[in-house]
């Protein structure tokens, strides 16, 4: 039990932030470990670890969000605008989305799509001649891109950062904004699950899972930021394309 929890929490901590789709990897774990990692209690523990990791990593920038002013380009307003598309889809199609997580046959295709999305990041980097500041329209389009990441196998960070670069946001701004959007996404998921949880989340195995997911999550954030700043996010696309080919064969 503890070994499986360690593996699940480690994979969640790493893949939640790297653009390789945590949900897709968790579905694979369920298949190959013969263990259901998507129970309500575990989902909440891993989500809380995710939130803590992002909070620790962005602590100073998160505080500044509530003090910056900018009219229509106010960061908090832009986050709200970008959250709208996924929020609408989540509310209207929540039941259908849940059924998608019960199948694995589509994973080779979604991992392939994720890889192709990340490959276009390379093209975006080659075609950017000048960079722009985030705007309400850019934020909304990034939010639309985030909708596709509802499907397991398609990365939320990958699609949003890639979309931001196509919209000519600076690399660091694209990275930051992508993870600011994680807060409403995770909080929304917690609201749907929290009422179904009992005291089992305070057991030793879940506490271990929380710590492991948090630590690996922070490490993944540091790694991803360096890769984004260097303009090489596309390397993760090669990984998910290779993963999709392996799944097609197996």
Number of helices: 12
Which bin fits the share of residues in helices?
A: over 70%
* Gap between N and C termini: 27 Å
Gyration radius, rounded: 18 Å
Shape assignment:
globular
State mean pLDDT (0 to 100 scale): 86
Structural class: mainly alpha
Number of strands: 0
Q: How many structural units, i.e. domains?
A: 1
Polypeptide structure, described:
The chain is mostly helical. It has one domain (2-249). The chain has twelve helices and no strands. Helix 1 packs antiparallel against helix 2 and helix 1 runs parallel beside helix 11. The model has no long low-confidence stretch (mean pLDDT 86).
Brief characterization of the structure:
By secondary structure, the chain is an all-alpha fold.
Give the key terms.
mainly alpha; 12 helices; 0% strand
Helix and strand layout, with pairings?
Blueprint: H1 2-15, H2 22-32, H3 40-57, H4 59-65, H5 75-100, H6 107-127, H7 136-148, H8 156-166, H9 171-180, H10 182-193, H11 204-229, H12 235-249
Helix pairs in contact: 1-2, 1-11, 3-10, 3-11, 5-7, 6-8, 6-12, 7-8, 8-9
């Amino acid at each position: 039990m503890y070994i499986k929890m360690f593996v699940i929490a480690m994979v969640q901590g790493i893949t939640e932030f790297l653009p390789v789709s945590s949900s897709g990897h968790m579905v694979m774990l369920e298949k190959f470990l013969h263990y259901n990692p998507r129970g309500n209690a575990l989902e909440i523990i891993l989500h809380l670890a995710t939130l803590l990791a992002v909070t620790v990593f962005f602590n100073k920038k998160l505080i500044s969000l509530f003090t910056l002013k900018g009219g229509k380009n106010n960061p908090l307003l832009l986050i709200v605008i970008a959250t709208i598309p996924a929020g609408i889809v989540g509310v209207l199609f929540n039941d259908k989305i849940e059924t998608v997580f019960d199948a694995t046959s589509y994973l080779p295709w979604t991992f392939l799509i994720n890889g192709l999305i990340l490959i276009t990041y390379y093209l975006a980097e080659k075609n950017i001649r000048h960079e722009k500041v985030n705007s309400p329209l850019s934020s909304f389009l990034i939010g639309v891109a985030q909708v596709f990441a509802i499907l397991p196998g398609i990365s939320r960070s990958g699609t949003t950062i890639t979309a931001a670069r196509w919209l000519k946001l600076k690399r660091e701004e694209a990275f930051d904004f992508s993870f600011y959007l994680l807060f409403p996404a995770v909080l929304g998921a917690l609201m749907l699950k929290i009422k179904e949880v009992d005291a089992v989340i305070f057991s030793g195995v879940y506490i271990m899972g929380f710590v492991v997911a948090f630590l690996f999550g922070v490490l993944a954030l540091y790694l991803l930021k360096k890769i984004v700043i260097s303009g090489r996010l596309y390397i993760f696309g090669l990984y998910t394309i290779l993963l999709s080919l392996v799944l097609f064969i197996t």
